[in-house]
Design a protein that fits this description.
The chain has 186 residues and is of the alpha/beta class. It contains 8 helices and 7 strands, in the order βββαββααβαβαααα. It folds into 2 domains: 104 residues, Conserved hypothetical protein from pyrococcus furiosus pfu- 392566-001, ParB domain (Alpha-Beta Complex); 65 residues, no CATH class. The chain is globular and about 50 Å long. The N and C termini lie far apart (53 Å).
Length: 186
């Protein structure tokens, strides 16, 4: 078995014209923060590479994380010129469902999410056959958040012909097993 090596140890300088945004990133950055990001990259340089999937067939890179850094390079003339149009990227080899999960994991620690896009991601993962447990584990949701997103989406097909399978929390499971449980509140 070979020793694991994190992608960050293999940063590539890629022409920004070969990099494309994914169509599932729900992260939103307000204009003042975008200006601050541009200033940060101007003052400090790129301190974190973007995370991409390499599409060998088209010789392109699809963003998994780093969309706003990518946007700054594309839209800031002074940064584009200084960086010679090159974006620092690392590559991960994952299928689409796992790339979606990676995007959410990268985003959740530092940004806000557009609720409509989050609903769409949950729907897409569900349609791809990912279980509720897989979705919760891989994009850091608890069972209540997943249920809310499924309810908000209004997509009946998420619930069609199948049981809702979010596992109960251990405490809830034990609670429901008590003989003196009264269901008056429910």
């Amino acid at each position: 078995m070979s020793e694991y090596k994190s992608p960050v140890y293999n940063v590539r300088a890629v022409p920004v014209e070969k990099v494309y945004a994914n169509d599932y990133n729900p992260n939103v950055v307000a204009p003042p923060e975008m200006k601050l990001l541009e200033l940060s990259i101007w003052e400090d340089g790129f301190t974190m590479p973007c995370v991409c999937y390499y599409d060998q067939e088209h010789d392109t890179y699809i963003l998994v994380d780093g969309y706003h850094r990518y946007q700054v390079l594309r839209t800031s003339k002074r940064i584009y010129e200084r960086e010679k149009g090159l974006l620092p990227v690392v590559v991960i080899e994952k299928d689409l469902s796992n790339r979606m999960a990676s995007t959410i994991r990268h985003n959740r620690a530092r940004g806000t999410h557009n609720i409509e896009l989050m609903c769409q991601i949950v729907a897409d993962l569900d349609k791809a056959g990912m279980s509720d447990s897989w979705i919760m584990k891989n994009i850091g949701m608890d069972r209540d958040e997943l249920l809310r997103l499924k309810q908000i989406s209004g997509l009946a097909e998420l619930f069609a012909n199948k049981d809702f399978t979010v596992p109960a929390k251990q405490e809830e499971f034990q609670f429901y097993q008590h003989d003196d449980y009264m269901s008056e509140e429910y």
